[in-house]
């Protein structure tokens, strides 16, 4: 069984520093998870304020959440998931995430599918297990071939089709935040967004960032570390979100073919990519596809 699950970034950020850097560390809630930031610049100037950059990250996270959330009633995703055929003049983040998601779905032959909203809504809430009839009906309202994107507009041929960015949204957000921090003038930084961790830049000690890989069978265990000089590490695992009914464990990673939790023989998959959305979506797709 392949194991791997990220988070718990045990990052020795400052060992070997000769000068104290200007540094900001912050945690905040967004997208139903904890976002963690570490932003630094050696020899900082008055024009550079890591705390202000962190403030900007919080605002940016909220903007992305307001575009991609399926639970916020005023988001573009919620609007699209209603009984409509199109959204015109959509939020740029919504269009960007939708385009990326369709590309990643095509690249994985549908193992990652952002159109499973009608299905995933059946499985949320900790049970009960949906009926075979409900699953079959929900699957008729999925399929990336039913979506068309043109400039800032998105259309669907099935008004009951629903988007779910749960397997790509946090990776998408992590990349946008890393880009924002880098453009703000930081020397290096780390963003942890749920099951995705992203890093860029060079630490003063020249050492890579170390990302802890959790043991799927032991919530307190670490099986090893991934060392990165930049990029994103994302994890999908059957131990993260699940419920038990009649002694059977049902996790949250859906197989688009069966409409049920994937039975691939894997417990967890970690992916390293230079693209945050790809790392997030591919960890799910590879979990579904199996070893």
Topology overview:
Layout: E1 22-30, E2 33-41, H1 50-68, H2 76-81, E3 86-87, H3 92-107, H4 117-123, H5 132-139, E4 147-150, E5 153-156, H6 169-183, E6 188-193, E7 196-201, E8 209-215, E9 218-228, E10 231-237, E11 242-245, E12 248-251, E13 268-273, H7 276-289
Antiparallel strand pairs: 1-2, 2-6, 3-5, 4-5, 6-7, 7-10, 8-9, 10-13, 11-12
Helix pairs in contact: 1-3, 1-6, 3-7, 6-7
Catalogue the unreliable spans.
1-20
- What's the tally of helices? 7
| Spatial order of strands in the largest sheet | 1-2-6-7-10-13
Structural class: alpha+beta
Tell me about the biggest sheet? 6 strands, antiparallel
The average pLDDT value, as a whole number, equals 90
- How much is the radius of gyration in Å? 20 Å
Strand content: 25-35%
List how many beta strands DSSP finds. Answer: 13
Distance between the ends:
8 Å
In helices, the fraction of residues equals 25-40%
- One letter per element, helices H and strands E, the order comes to EEHHEHHHEEHEEEEEEEEH
């Amino acid at each position: 069984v392949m194991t791997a699950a990220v988070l718990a970034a045990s990052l020795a950020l400052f060992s070997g520093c000769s000068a104290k850097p200007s540094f900001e560390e912050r945690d905040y809630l967004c997208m139903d998870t904890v976002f963690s930031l570490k932003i630094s610049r050696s020899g900082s100037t008055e024009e550079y304020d890591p705390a202000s950059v962190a403030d900007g990250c919080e605002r940016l996270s909220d903007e992305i959440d307001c575009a991609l959330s399926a639970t916020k009633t005023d988001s573009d995703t919620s609007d699209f998931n209603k009984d409509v055929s199109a959204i015109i003049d959509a939020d740029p983040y919504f269009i960007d995430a939708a385009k990326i998601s369709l590309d990643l779905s095509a690249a994985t032959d549908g193992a990652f599918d952002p159109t499973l909203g009608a299905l995933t809504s059946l499985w949320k809430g900790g049970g009960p297990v949906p009926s075979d009839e409900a699953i079959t009906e929900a699957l008729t309202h999925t399929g990336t071939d039913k979506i068309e994107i043109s400039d800032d507009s998105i259309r669907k041929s099935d008004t009951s089709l629903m988007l779910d960015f749960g397997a790509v949204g946090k990776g998408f957000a992590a990349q946008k935040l890393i880009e924002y921090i880098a453009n703000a003038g930081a020397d290096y930084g780390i963003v942890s967004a749920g099951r995705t961790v992203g890093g860029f830049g060079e630490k003063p000690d020249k050492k890579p960032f170390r990302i802890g890989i959790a043991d799927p069978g032991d919530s307190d265990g670490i099986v090893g570390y991934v060392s990165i000089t930049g990029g994103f590490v994302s994890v999908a695992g059957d131990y993260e979100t699940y419920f038990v009914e009649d002694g059977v464990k049902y996790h949250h990673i859906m197989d688009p073919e069966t409409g049920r939790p994937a039975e691939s023989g894997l417990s967890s998959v970690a992916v390293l990519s230079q693209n945050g959305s790809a790392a997030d979506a591919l960890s799910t797709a590879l979990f579904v596809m199996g070893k």
